[in-house]
Design a protein that fits this description.
The chain has about 190 residues and is mostly helical. About 55% of the residues lie in helices and about 10% in strands. α2 (about 30-50) packs across α6 and α3 (about 55-65) packs across α6.
């Protein structure tokens, strides 16, 4: 019997227990919820991005460049690894952002044969405005969880990301893990 806090995944698990009781589907409780949360959160964030004609993926690229600090520049290869996408997908995303005047391609100062991607002033202004709005919206979305629950969830998700091979900076050697001050840090 489903309780008052049941969700889609709990209903699916109950059905699996009925249909195939010998099947250990307990991993679905985590994996499927993460997948569903990704979709649900993206839907919730669309209204924040839509007025700026941005997709979540485009904001992710702009945010990665902004996080770098001045001169807000990365190679396409590093940018692709940072946002976990294919080079073809990144090429398309960069073309869109370049067409909107939010990024530009500049000669790479360390390799004359290569060009880096740099955030324009318009791109920097936009990402800063949208990010502030997004963070306020995300805070509201997480308001149903107590501070300790948010911290525990963030730690558990970080541990899972690390276990699956996520790196702080793609290709960089790992540093010893330091305990944080309990604040949630956005990857964006």
């Amino acid at each position: 019997m489903l309780g008052p806090m049941a969700d889609h995944v709990e209903a699916a698990l109950e059905r699996w227990r009925t249909e195939m009781p010998h099947l250990d589907a307990s991993s679905l409780a985590v994996v499927e919820r993460i997948a569903r949360l990704s979709t649900l959160l993206e839907r919730q964030l669309e209204p924040v991005l839509a007025p700026h004609s941005l997709t979540a993926g485009e904001l992710e690229v702009l945010a990665a460049l902004r996080r770098e600090g001045a001169p807000f520049r990365m190679t396409p290869t590093r940018l692709t690894a940072t946002v976990l996408m294919t080079s073809g997908g990144m090429t398309k995303r960069l073309a869109t952002l370049e067409g909107a005047g939010l990024v530009t391609r500049v000669p790479d100062p360390t390799d004359r044969r290569s060009r880096s991607v740099e955030l324009t002033d318009a791109g920097r202004d936009l990402v800063e405005r949208v990010l502030a709005s997004r963070l306020r919206h995300e805070k509201r979305l997480l308001s149903g969880l107590r501070k300790r629950q948010r911290r525990d969830l963030a730690e558990a998700l970080r541990d899972l990301c690390v276990a699956l091979g996520d790196e702080p900076v793609p290709g960089a050697p790992r540093k010893e893990r330091q305990e944080d001050d309990g604040d949630l840090r956005q990857s964006i």
